[in-house]
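__Record contents__

***
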Amino acid sequence: MFSIRLKQLTPYVPGEQPQDRRYIKLNTNENPYPPSPRMQTFLAAADMDLLRRYPDPRFTDLCSAIAKREGVRPDQVFAGNGSDEVLSFAFFAFFDGRNGPLLFPEHTYSFYPVYCDFYGIPFQRVPLKPDFTIDLKDYARIESSSGVIYPNPNAPTGILTPRPDIRGFLSSYATDRVVIIDEAYIEFGGESAVMLTAEFPNLLVVKTLSKTWALAGMRLGFAVGQPDLIQALYTVKDSFNSYPVNALTQKLGVLAMEDEVYYQETTQKIIRTRDSFARQLVRLGWKVMPSSANFLFAGKPGVSGKAVYDELKSRGILVRFFNVDGLTDFVRITIGTDRQMQRLTAELESMKP
């Protein structure tokens, strides 16, 4: 009854969304602040005729708004139902194993191997350094590869690769292989690589509106690259579903791109809270990875990450535990509001050593 392909898949497992009680949810990297107030105003007066008609299949207004915000041309932008869909299209368009495996970090976004299995793409995990950093020189030394993808900052560590290091790697890597930088968290403390797409035609930068723009429930992401890469994504989209981003989402995406002042304010709030909470964890004896994301990757020496996760869940606080070799001493903690992080700090102080 079922295909061989289906039987070979191991699906991605998202952060849990339990319904048994009210939790402080610090496990899925959601923004603790609401999206731009402009959206509520728009939705209250939205023309329902918008829902009757098919949406613009080329996202004209949305791509123009994204392009203006990112400092590129509209023909350098592609949009999809969340960055996960954009990444899926990119895997299909650019990676097939002809020149070797796709390279990505040993510890990274766990959807990457799922895409590889789905599309039959061979891959190779590149070890992180002992301090959990990515050294792009390790990727350049691998003789055969069909491309490279990694998040910047990386997940689940939150550690940033500086833009000069990215430029150096791109200068040495094969120009006929696509490099994808997944910038889901870049606004929380890093420099985007979008400007490098003008210099390196094989670079594709992918972003999401789920984190910085507080629109995880809306599902909207985009890619920036040279027009031939963008056109390849449209070819995949139009071979799968010619109308993937709905009309309402396109309108709300434009509003998000236009309200830069509001999002700068909320992003800075999260950064201040993150840095303050990191200091509290260090005070309590925790090991904390340097984060440029809206989360911290941290562990208490002598206590397993699973034990921390279980204890906090029993106290009504959800964090993320990865049961993966090399990560089991840590939990990933999304940065919430100041009040939420104060509550978490109090709970951690009261936990047994």
Notes: The mean pLDDT is 95. Residues 260-283 form the longest helix (24 residues). The domain at 4-34+261-350 is CATH 3.90.1150.10 (Aspartate Aminotransferase, domain 1).
